[in-house]
Specification:
about 300 residues, mainly alpha, about 80% helix, about 0% strand
């Protein structure tokens, strides 16, 4: 009997990376981006850029209008002028935050729902853009949680920075150091101390960002705010590294579309791909969670 030799080699197969899964999921939608995906990207860019511009203008308005304008610290009215400028800046920042919460964030997620329907080959509806307003209570809770999760670490940074600045100033004053060196030491110390707080703020944003789309996604049953937050927390578990790669690639998509598309490509390719990557990451991670839950129920 002839000797048969088994030539089949079973190589270990690695599961596809998150970015590869997302690209496979959205590939068909990006061959020729639909009008819905393009408009979704444009609306997202406007809703993201306008509040950022308003916030910058709110803080530095006087300096931008007249760079030579300053406060005479030797004047008796210097404290009054300084407190007035700070009060105005703080009030303007609160106004910009209100615009972000009431306008920018809801319309951004409404645009994301349009993009999500586009990559699912579904027909978007006009009401999709206003979906967060139709779920105003749940979306408001999510918005507040998202803002606080990003703001509290930065607030802690400010508190620590004030303490550190006082300690450094006191140490330099005792040693009769150079005031210029004192300022440099304070700035460097504050920046170094702030690194963990910045990463903590980004970490919470990564973990909670998908809750907004879960609140308005028909496929998820339009969850309440707290179940949606819990879902976002579960689907992003141990995904910080892969999601960071997706975020970097999405940023590259914007740069690539702007440079190689002569700026027009930003609107026809860069922004649609950016939105598609966000929506695709949510879709893939939600499917993974659904499969894990079904497997867990099946094994019981």
């Amino acid at each position: 009997m002839a000797l048969q030799i088994n030539t089949i080699i079973n190589l270990p197969t690695q599961p596809p990376t998150l970015l590869r899964e997302i690209q496979d999921r959205i590939g068909g939608a990006l061959v020729r981006p639909s009008a819905a995906l393009i408009w979704s990207g444009v609306i997202t860019a406007i809703m993201t850029g306008v509040p950022a511009f308003v916030a910058i203008w709110a803080v530095f308005a006087d300096l931008l209008v007249d760079p030579t304008k300053g406060i005479d610290l030797s004047s008796e009215q210097s404290i009054t002028e300084l407190s007035g400028l700070m009060t105005k800046a703080i009030s303007n920042v609160f106004i910009s935050v209100a615009i972000f919460l009431l306008v920018a964030l809801p319309f951004s997620y409404g645009a994301a729902l349009i993009g999500l329907r586009a990559i699912r080959n579904e027909s978007p509806k006009r009401s999709d853009l206003f979906a967060p307003y139709l779920r105003a209570w749940d979306f408001s809770i999510f918005s507040i949680v998202l803002i606080l999760s990003g703001f509290i670490p930065l607030l802690l940074w400010i508190i620590v920075a004030i303490v550190v600045s006082f300690v450094v100033s006191l140490a330099v004053a005792i040693n009769e150091g150079d005031p210029t060196g004192q300022i440099g030491a304070i700035v460097l110390t504050v920046l170094i101390v702030g690194i963990p707080f910045i990463f903590l703020s980004i970490y919470f944003q990564f973990r909670l960002v998908y809750a907004g789309i879960a609140v308005i996604d028909p496929a998820s049953g339009r969850m309440g705010a707290f179940p949606a937050i819990a879902k976002s927390w579960r689907i992003t578990r141990r995904q910080n590294g892969p999601l960071s790669m997706v975020a970097l690639y999405a940023t590259w998509a914007l740069i690539r579309g702007t440079i190689f598309g002569y700026l027009i490509g930003l609107f026809t390719r860069g922004l649609p791909e950016f939105v598609a990557l966000f929506c695709g990451s949510y879709d893939v991670l939600a499917d993974r969670l659904r499969s894990q839950e079904q497997s867990a129920h099946g094994s019981q």
